[in-house]
Amino acid sequence: MDIHIFWEGPFELKDMSKINNESKDYGIYQVYGHHPIYGDSVLLYIGLAVNQTFATRIAQETWNDRPDPLNTHIYIGRLAGRMKVDIDTWDELIERAEKLLIYSHKPVLNTQNTKSLKEGDFLDDRIYNWGSHRDLFPEVSTRRFISSNFEHISEDQIYDASKDTRVDNE
């Protein structure tokens, strides 16, 4: 399933209270800031805001308690597409996208969904990140990050230019 996310940001923590429109301010968010080992401006966390706006969800977390909250920046992502989806489908898409984004990017403060995901749970999902997606890959797919279809690659023969490994089109 193709999931398109349009990203906006960066926002400072003090600005998050303004992102509280109950008709549209839901989705996925990324948090960037200082980490004592990895340095400044690092992807710290990916989370989701469902059944509550970005403003409400992010206010519940302890980002203001960080050593340098002024250098903590938030990017918000909303589902995008040509067709409207019902609320149950929307919730499912957001949850699937969050899990796959966490799994593929491994933010330093996320503890869930970083180790393994079941291949059958995601079938053939593809996430397209648009706009200000910052450090996220522009495209993430289960075929690349979860699928067992490519486990053999390290054992495959490496192509070379010799005549016996090329296919002739004659």
SSE inventory with pairings:
Blueprint: E1 2-12, E2 27-35, E3 39-49, H1 54-59, E4 73-80, H2 87-105, H3 119-122, E5 126-131, E6 139-141, H4 142-145
Parallel strand pairs: 1-5
Antiparallel strand pairs: 1-4, 2-3, 2-4, 5-6
The averaged pLDDT comes out at 84
* Strand and helix order: EEEHEHHEEH
Main pleated-sheet profile: 6 strands, mixed
Q: What quaternary form is this? A: single chain
Can you put this structure into words, describing what you see?
By secondary structure, this protein is of the alpha+beta class. The chain has helices at residues 54-59, 87-105, 119-122, 142-145; strands at 2-12, 27-35, 39-49, 73-80, 126-131, 139-141. The chain has one domain (2-146). Strands 3-2-4-1-5-6 form a 6-stranded mixed beta sheet. It starts with a strand and ends in a 25-residue tail after the last helix. The mean pLDDT is 84.
What's a concise summary of this model?
Helix content is 19%, strand content 28%. The protein has 170 residues and is of the alpha+beta class.
Features:
single chain; 170 residues; alpha+beta; 4 helices; 6 strands; 19% helix
